[in-house]
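Researcher: Re-running this chain for the archive, since the previous output was lost when a drive failed. Same request as before.
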Amino acid sequence: MARFDGEVALVTGGARGIGLATVERLAAEGARVVACDLDIDADTDTDTNTDRVWFRRCDVRIEADVADLIAWCTREVGAVSVLVNSAGVNLTFDSTTMTSDEWDDAFAVDLKAAWLTAKHAVPAMRA
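Model: Regenerated structure tokens:
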């Protein structure tokens, strides 16, 4: 039996980099994985869903998008039992020229998104 058999994992930022590597590892270990990313339609290797991995577009900065994603996941795959908040923004701005909007956007992805996904996934995890 694989380590994550029977688990449903949600990985934010799952289209590339560390997020995609996490998706692949969880699936290899037996989890059913929903990977979400803002750029799911971009030129990535995430074009097809499998019987173990589903890629969904989601803007994790927007609560309605996150709520819809969790609802879809619960309905189509199962209740989330593993949550990996991998979405993030690399801040390459010069702090003296960075705008307030750029700051707010970066922290919406890096911090607010983790809270939003937990807010909507944890109730089913507790149950």
